[in-house]
Amino acid sequence: MKRWRKGLAAALSTGLLTMALTGNALAAEERTKISQVSLKIESLIEAGQDGSDVNVSISSGTGYSLDDVTVKNDDGEWISGDEPRVEITLEAEEDYYFDSMSKSKVKLSGDKATYVTSSRRDNKSTLVVTVKLGALEGSLEVDGVEWEGEDIPVARWESTAGAKSYQVRLYREDRSVGTTVTTSNEYYNFSSSITREGDYYFKVRAVNSNSKKGEWYESDSMYVDGDMAEDFKNGNYSSGSQNSGTANAPGASSNGGTWKRNNVGWWYEYSDGSYPRNGWLSIKNVWYCFDAAGYMRMGWIQAGDGKWYYCDPREGSNQGAMMVNTTTPDGYRVDANGVWIQ
């Protein structure tokens, strides 16, 4: 009899649990399912500004309302190439709930936006949708485009917000000289390209991380006579006051060499007065890259093998050193050989 009562109690308990679960399921099914959502997005974010205003609107009578819009990127000035990420929170009306969402069920209109992910909360009554807006297209304007001096073959310009690199092109008498060169610095030495008399000027444009190119900006002309061209070829020109000290140098000296610096940049000079140019040099097991004039290069550099490397542009003892097995200051990974991991 006790066994029967125990079994009966268990059966009744199971039955009551089943009824409770069934009741909950029926209660949940009584709510109207929201199987898709439509969002119209208007972004007021602009490169060069620090505002994060994004407007989101929905149609009435959809069974849900807009609760919150949050831009998830770090605070600070937006630059060309940035992609704002926006988190949009929706609340279901009473007697409604959100179905599981996917890219095909989230309809986006207005400004260019791409679905990233979504999640439900609060018994499916809250839906959080994350979208990515299109890359910002700033003007990529380049200011301060000029020769360093009337008799100095160094092109200079000011840093452009959002620029990953610059393309520079030299002209003589309105005809291009050589090919377009790419640099991550705000200068380029054309001493090896100015080989004869004429009026020379250069053009430069900025390129952002998405390979978007800005407008070309042009310098004034510089007249070069035959003697000046010969001096440029032999490196006989002044590019600012010399500083032969090694304070704040980017690395230790090697093979009798010494780091030197002027207002254009750093170079590595051997004891015989010569210096490396147009290539890479390992100094104390650290790789550095030098341009055609012998100045140390910094930032992103595409080597002859077609691969991209990064030399640290930050002030300090590691300035100019090729970075390896780490994340660059602009957020990209490089492997143990210094190669950009794409």
Description:
The chain is mainly β and 342 residues long. It has three domains: 32-133, no CATH class; 146-234, Immunoglobulin-like (Sandwich); 257-341, left handed beta-beta-3-solenoid, CATH 2.10.270. 11% of the residues lie in helices and 39% in strands. The protein is built from two helices and 25 strands. The protein has helices at 2-29, 226-234; strands spanning 32-34, 37-43, 54-57, 64-71, 85-92, 96-98, 106-110, 113-121, 126-133, 146-149, 152-156, 163-172, 175-183, 187-189, 198-208, 217-218, 222-224, 258-261, 266-269, 279-283, 286-290, 299-302, 308-311, 326-327, 333-334. The strands form nine sheets. Strands 12, 13, 15, 16 and 17 form a five-stranded antiparallel beta sheet that branches. A hairpin with a 2-residue loop joins strand 10 and strand 11. The longest helix has 28 residues, at 2-29. It is elongated. The protein starts with a helix and ends in an 8-residue tail after the last strand. Mean pLDDT is 82; it is low at 1-14, 16-26 and 239-255.
Could you list some keywords that capture this structure?
342 residues, mainly beta, Immunoglobulin-like, left handed beta-beta-3-solenoid, 3 domains, 5-stranded antiparallel β-sheet, 4-stranded antiparallel β-sheet, 2 helices, 25 strands, 39% strand, elongated, disordered N terminus
**Order of SSEs, N→C?**
HEEEEEEEEEEEEEEEEEHEEEEEEEE
The structural class is mainly beta
Number of strands: 25
For the biggest sheet, the summary is: 5 strands, antiparallel
β-strand percent reads 35-45%
Protein topology:
Blueprint: H1 2-29, E1 32-34, E2 37-43, E3 54-57, E4 64-71, E5 85-92, E6 96-98, E7 106-110, E8 113-121, E9 126-133, E10 146-149, E11 152-156, E12 163-172, E13 175-183, E14 187-189, E15 198-208, E16 217-218, E17 222-224, H2 226-234, E18 258-261, E19 266-269, E20 279-283, E21 286-290, E22 299-302, E23 308-311, E24 326-327, E25 333-334
Parallel strand pairs: 1-6, 2-7
Antiparallel strand pairs: 2-3, 4-5, 5-9, 8-9, 10-11, 11-14, 12-13, 12-15, 15-16, 15-17, 18-19, 20-21, 22-23, 24-25
